[in-house]
Amino acid sequence: MKKEDKSVIIKQIESAIQSYAHFYLTDIGGLNAEETSKLRRTCFKQDVKLLVVKNTLLKKALESSGVDYSELFGVLKGETSLMLSNTGNAPARLIKDFSKDSKSKKPVLKAAYVEESFYIGENQLETLITIKSKSELIGDIIALLQSPVKNVMSALQSGGTTIHGVLQTLSEK
Questions:
Q1: What is the mean pLDDT of residues 152-172?
Q2: pLDDT for 48
Q3: 90, 48 in Cβ contact below 8 A?
Q4: Which of 168, 167, 149 is nearest to 157 (CA)?
Q5: Chain centroid to CA 126: how far?
Q6: How far apart are CA 18 and CA 110, in angstroms?
Q7: What are the CA-CA distances from residue 148 to residues 138, 154, 155, 161 (Å)?
Q8: pLDDT value of residue 82
Q9: CB count, 10 Å around CB of 124?
Q10: Is there a contact between 65 and 14 (Cβ–Cβ < 8 Å)?
Q11: How confident is the model at residue 23 (pLDDT cuts 50, 70, 90)?
């Protein structure tokens, strides 16, 4: 491959990484053509972009991106594919569900960059599945803050109807 071609590919990988909030490094080697097509369709349905990349080109793209991704360089061995998503836990769920049904138990998680944190190793998959996005956390906090207010309002309204009923009964007598 010519140096110009490599630099174009590096720029494409770098722009793909920058256009998504989260990415996963996985190993999909060993999947046959049918399983690979099924994985690509599943990724497309769940709004996850799947790219098969060369480790050296990915490393150069990560180095030139302006963010320190050096923690991920240790896993750039063997076959590597890149799963890009704007939802932090979508690729983790996809990996778990797909590998459960796959004969080769692939894809396998190598590492992930989610919510500005690094997760290295296959053992981090369950942690990644349970991660909530910032918007989900904000929603949970708002719900928790609204809960006491709703309880007070409910109590005041029910108390008001009780007092109103008592006053109405007394006025009729």
A1: 68
A2: 92
A3: yes
A4: 149
A5: 12
A6: 20
A7: 17, 10, 11, 20
A8: 93
A9: 18
A10: yes
A11: very high
Structure tokens, 136: 């989900």
Output the pTM of the full model: 0.75
The pairing of strands 117-120 and 49-53 is unpaired
Q: Which two tokens stand for residue 75?
A: 């896993």
Is pLDDT of 166 > 70? no
AA identity, residue 108:
V
User: Of how many residues is the chain composed?
Assistant: 173
pLDDT at 29: 85
Nearest CA to 53 among 33, 71, 76, 36?
76
Tell me which amino acid residue 168 is.
Q
Write out the chain in H/E/C secondary structure.
CCHHHHHHHHHHHHHHHHHCCEEEEEECCCCCHHHHHHHHHHHHHCCCEEEEECHHHHHHHHHCCCCCCHHHHHHCCCCEEEEEECCCCHHHHHHHHHHHHCCCCCCEEEEEEECCEEEECHHHHHHHHHCCCHHHHHHHHHHHHHHHHHHHHHHHHHHHHHHHHHHHHHHHC
> What residue type is 125 in one-letter code?
L
The yes-or-no verdict on residue 77 having pLDDT over 80 is yes
pLDDT confidence of residue 139: 87
